[in-house]
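Final report, results section. Input specification for complex C-07:
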Amino acid sequence: AQSVAQPEDQVNVAEGNPLTVKCTYSVSGNPYLFWYVQYPNRGLQFLLKYITGDNLVKGSYGFEAEFNKSQTSFHLKKPSALVSDSALYFCAVRDWAGKSTFGDGTTLTVKP
Amino acid sequence: GAGVSQSPSNKVTEKGKDVELRCDPISGHTALYWYRQSLGQGLEFLIYFQGNSAPDKSGLPSDRFSAERTGGSVSTLTIQRTQQEDSAVYLCASISTGGASAGELFFGEGSRLTVL
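Structure output:
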């Protein structure tokens, strides 16, 4: 069975500093990996995805993620955090049959 | 419509009553998911519909939960004899299988269920 682990419940960074939100996965076959963001009292929004190709993928709002096959990781990164980036972030993996499994989420807080 | 539409947005019910939650996916999306998100928690997979295939019901927590998708479009999640632990936000998502957005889930705003 596929699974996703987000080892940190909370990540706190100062505005302007780089941020990393960690994600590791387990899936049979080639992984399809996704990051979603949930702002307070809002629905989930797609941020970025890895299907194939370059290991570094770029997404919305200046976010990027690096796919590392040997470490089965797909960490979310941003070079310079904004207060407005504060939200709940979910990593997800999709298997060949189309079923998407989500991690438990990481709350990112960016302080001014 | 332009996005995934869910109704009702809020539902308060008494323990033991049945509830129905509706999801209208993006036109043309062949796959549809239901997830449950309890307060401050992650997304719990409930059920997955893909085209005309038999749905993946492996996430339904008990036989009080059921879902159907009529005509390959609108889906209804039914919870019978609701319990307080059913209180959560129920999220529906549909997925594009082609084009630049292939594989991305498009979520509705959710239906917040409160069981008193």
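Residues 75 and 92 of chain A are 11 Å apart (CA to CA). Chain A has a mean pLDDT of 93. This concludes the modelling results for the funded period.
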